[in-house]
Amino acid sequence: MTVDLLLGLQWGDEGKGKIVDVLTSKYDIIARFQGGPNAGHTLEFDGIKHVLRTIPSGIFHENSTNIIGNGVVIDPVVFKSEIDGLAKFNLDIKNKLIISRKAHLILPTHRLLDAASEAAKGKAKIGSTLKGIGPTYMDKTGRNGLRVGDIELDDFNERYRVLADKHEEMIKFYNVDIQYNLPELEKEFFEAIEDLKKLTLLTAKSI
């Protein structure tokens, strides 16, 4: 089986989404294997612009299966917004989109950690998009994070609370003034989790 791999080598904004859309109109499977929702793949069909941040840009191709692999970090709130934006186009999302259970979740506290870390750097800040992507990958490599498959567990809420509490302690360590309403952010997060549960999840070593 032949596999074509498209990599960005210019720190983003190379137009990868457009290129994938052009090259893969006849491909059976289009997979995204890493990255997070800081990406913005802009596509245009029939004069309508679509911006995808997590979903592979092959979602509009009639016969393609789109996979979000285990290297991707997913913000359920951003993801829900993408799905909602596609609803009016009558795409068969349930069958056209498959999500690895091993993909890690971006929690609200990951975004807060990102903001606190960036604020603490002062003039040395790196220009983070503040989407929580870096802290989520840190939890992934540290084997502390929550994965998509965890949302199916009976104790998911408890696992979430343990990690979120840990993040809040870390935020205090940065000693910066960031304003947030965590209960409000969590309400939106858990509503998006319920939508994520309705999609097709897959476990496989290859993704």
Q: Could you characterize the architecture of this molecule?
A:
This protein has 207 residues and is an alpha/beta fold. It is built from 7 helices and 8 strands, in the order H-E-E-E-E-E-H-H-E-E-H-H-H-H-E. The chain has helices spanning 16-23, 76-86, 93-96, 108-121, 133-141, 156-174, 182-196, and strands at residues 29-32, 41-45, 48-52, 65-68, 73-74, 97-100, 104-105, 200-202. It has a 4-stranded parallel beta sheet with strand order 1-4-6-8. The radius of gyration is 18 Å and the shape is globular.
Rg, please? 18 Å
Overall 3D shape: globular
Q: Main sheet?
A: 4 strands, parallel
The unreliable regions are none
**H/E series:** HEEEEEHHEEHHHHE
Distance between the termini: 16 Å
**Share of residues in helices:** 25-40%
The oligomerization state is: single chain
Number of strands: 8
- Average pLDDT works out at 88
What structural class should be given to the helix and strand makeup? alpha/beta
Q: What topology, given as strand order, has the largest sheet? A: 1-4-6-8
Counted by DSSP, the helix tally is 7
Classify the beta-strand content into a percent band. 5-15%
Helices and strands in order, then pairings?
Elements: H1 16-23, E1 29-32, E2 41-45, E3 48-52, E4 65-68, E5 73-74, H2 76-86, H3 93-96, E6 97-100, E7 104-105, H4 108-121, H5 133-141, H6 156-174, H7 182-196, E8 200-202
